[in-house]
Amino acid sequence: MIELNQQLALAADRQLVDYVKSQDTKYALHEFNYWVHKLNSTDAPLYKPKDKLTLHTIVYTLEGVQLADLVEDITIGGQNELRCLNFILPSMHHGENVEVLVPWYMAYGPQGNDF
User: Fold this and answer.
1) What kind and span of H or E run contains 39?
2) What's the CA gap between 25 and 23, in Å, rounded?
3) Tens of pLDDT along the chain (115 residues)?
4) What are phi and psi of 57, to 5 degrees?
5) End-to-end distance of the chain based on CA atoms, in angstroms?
6) Rounded to whole angstroms, how far apart are CA atoms 20 and 27?
């Protein structure tokens, strides 16, 4: 089962790389293996662990099918529905908007969720 999950994760990574290469939008690969395109930048401070904020997240497949539209109050580093938020948010400045491409295993973990 572990080997199957590893194979699926590698396939997801390859699919994201192919998707990024096919886009006109410039994405940057983050050290934690997700892709980011900043829609706007600010000079505000970076988010810190334990910061509280209201987050609007829209989840799409690579084919453009919308899976979720979530508005939630979260705490950075807390038990957030999208696991990857604990990696993504501390690299963002207050007020920034980003488009993030995240493989399923980073977004929802190996067990998945209702999406």
Assistant:
1) strand 35-40
2) 5
3) 889 888 998 999 999 999 999 999 999 999 888 999 999 999 999 999 899 999 999 999 999 999 999 899 989 888 876 778 888 898 899 999 999 999 888 877 655 554 4
4) -125, 130
5) 21
6) 7
Rounded Cα gap, residues 55 and 58, in angstroms = 10
How distant is the alpha carbon of residue 59 from its chain centre? 9
- The enclosing H or E element of 13 equals helix 2-22
Q: Whole-prediction pTM value?
A: 0.80
How many other C-beta atoms can be found within 10 angstroms of the C-beta atom of residue 40?
9
From the list 104, 101, 89, the residue with the least C-alpha distance to 18 is: 101
Q: How far apart are CA 113 and CA 90, in angstroms?
A: 24
What is the C-alpha to C-alpha distance for residues 48 and 73, in angstroms, rounded to an integer? 15
Name the β-bridge partners of 114: none
**Alpha-carbon torsion, ordered 40, 22, 114, 80, to 10 deg:** -30
